[in-house]
Amino acid sequence: MDTTRLTDVRQSLHRIPELGFEEHKTQAFLLSVIAELPQAHLEVTVWRTGVLVLARGESPARRVAYRADMDGLPVREETGARYASVHDGMMHACGHDVHMTIALGLLSHFAEHRPMDDILFVFQPAEEGPGGALPMLQSDEFKHLRPDAIFALHVQPELPVGQIGLRPGILFANTSELFIDLVGRGGHAAFPHRANDMVVAGAQFISAVQSIVSRNVDPLDSAVITIGRLEAGTKQNIIAERARLEGTMRALSSDTMEQLKHRVESLLEGTAKMFDCTYELDYGANYHQVWNEERLTESFISFVEENALARVERVPTAMTGEDFGYFLREIPGFLFWLGAQSPFGLHHARMLPDQACVDVALKVLVPYFSERVYLQSL
Ligand SMILES: CC(=O)N[C@@H](CCC[C@H](N)C(=O)O)C(=O)O
C-alpha cells in the first residue's frame, strides 16, 4: 500500500468514528480493504465488531501479533480537516484511525511479502470503553489464534514525528471508571429547607475527592482521580433531585487502586450522611496496567537505534490507560508511543496526528517483523 493509499485509508477511517462495540462501518471498511489484498496466505476471522487476520508464515517458529484499536470518542470534532468526522458528536480524538491505518499498511506488506513467522493482526474494538481487549482475549476465536508475543503503538501528539517513546516495565497505569448518582429530593429554589439539593452534595463530593490523592496516597506513589462529566438539575430555579458524576481513576498498582476505591466509598458514605441522600456507585470498566516486557522492549530499542529507524526516547510512565494491558498480562510484548506532532493533546477536539507518522511506524515495524527481532527475546 503506497503513501497515497494509506492517506486515503486514514482519511476514510477518520470520517466514520464509532463508539465501542458500535464499530460496524469501521469493521466493514476494514474488511473491504483487507479483501483487496492478496489472499493466498490470509485467514480472516470476525469477532463482534473486531477483525482478526492471520498472515500465515512460510516456516513459522512463532506466532506474533500486532494490535490496533478501533473506536472513536464522544467528542465534537473541531479540527477543520477536509476529512473531519461525518458522525456528529463523535471523533477519532485518540488516533485510532491512525492505529488502524498502520496495521493495514503492515498487513498489506505481509500479504504481498509472505513472512517467515505467523503474524496475527488484531483489530480490537472498544478500547475507550467498555473495553474490548479482555473479552477478545477470552473469546474462542482469539484462543484459537493465540500468539506468543504481541505488540502495539499509540500515537503521541506531544512527540515529534520521527520519534518513538517507550520504557521497559510499566508504561501506562491501572484504570477504573467511576460513575456516581447522588439521589436527594428536588423542590422549589425558594424553599431549600424542604428539598435535598444534589448540586450542593455533588459539589461537596467533588471537592472532597481532591483530598484522596493529596492526603491518602503515598507522595512517592502516583494516582489520579478526574471527574470529567457532571450533570444535575433541569432549570435554574428548581433544586436538583439527582446529580450524576462521571470520572476515571488511575493508579500504578492494584493496591493503590483499591485504596482509591475505598476512599471514594468512604467519602460517598459521608456525603450521603451529610446531605441525607442516597447514592449509586459503578466502577464501569477497569483496565490492567500496560507492562512492557523488559527483554523484548530492550531488543526493540536497540534494533531501532542501531538501524536509525527512528529516534528513541525513554519516556516516563504515563497515567493513561489502555486495555492492551490485558493482552500484556498474559502474552509478552510491548506498546510504544509514536510521535505524531499535534498542538492539541489526546482526547482534544482539535487533535490531529500528522499523517507522516504512519510512514515512520511502517519504517520501524516492517523490518522488526521481517527480521524477527523478537526471536532473540522469546
Ligand atoms: C490512551 C488513552 O487515552 N486511553 C484511555 C483509556 C480509557 C480508559 C477508561 N475508559 C477510563 O476512562 O478509565 C485513557 O483515558 O487513558
TrEMBL record:
<comment type="similarity">
    <text>Belongs to the peptidase M20A family. N-acetyldiaminopimelate deacetylase subfamily.</text>
</comment>
<dbReference type="InterPro" id="IPR017439">
    <property type="entry name" value="Amidohydrolase"/>
</dbReference>
<comment type="pathway">
    <text>Amino-acid biosynthesis; L-lysine biosynthesis via DAP pathway; LL-2,6-diaminopimelate from (S)-tetrahydrodipicolinate (acetylase route): step 3/3.</text>
</comment>
<dbReference type="InterPro" id="IPR011650">
    <property type="entry name" value="Peptidase_M20_dimer"/>
</dbReference>
<keyword id="KW-0378">Hydrolase</keyword>
<dbReference type="InterPro" id="IPR036264">
    <property type="entry name" value="Bact_exopeptidase_dim_dom"/>
</dbReference>
<keyword id="KW-0220">Diaminopimelate biosynthesis</keyword>
<feature type="active site">
    <location>
        <position position="69"/>
    </location>
</feature>
<dbReference type="InterPro" id="IPR023905">
    <property type="entry name" value="AcetylDAP_deacetylase"/>
</dbReference>
<dbReference type="InterPro" id="IPR002933">
    <property type="entry name" value="Peptidase_M20"/>
</dbReference>
<comment type="function">
    <text>Catalyzes the conversion of N-acetyl-diaminopimelate to diaminopimelate and acetate.</text>
</comment>
<dbReference type="Pfam" id="PF01546">
    <property type="entry name" value="Peptidase_M20"/>
</dbReference>
<dbReference type="Pfam" id="PF07687">
    <property type="entry name" value="M20_dimer"/>
</dbReference>
<protein>
    <recommendedName>
        <fullName>N-acetyldiaminopimelate deacetylase</fullName>
        <ecNumber>3.5.1.47</ecNumber>
    </recommendedName>
</protein>
<keyword id="KW-0028">Amino-acid biosynthesis</keyword>
<keyword id="KW-0457">Lysine biosynthesis</keyword>
<feature type="active site" description="Proton acceptor">
    <location>
        <position position="128"/>
    </location>
</feature>
<feature type="domain" description="Peptidase M20 dimerisation">
    <location>
        <begin position="182"/>
        <end position="271"/>
    </location>
</feature>
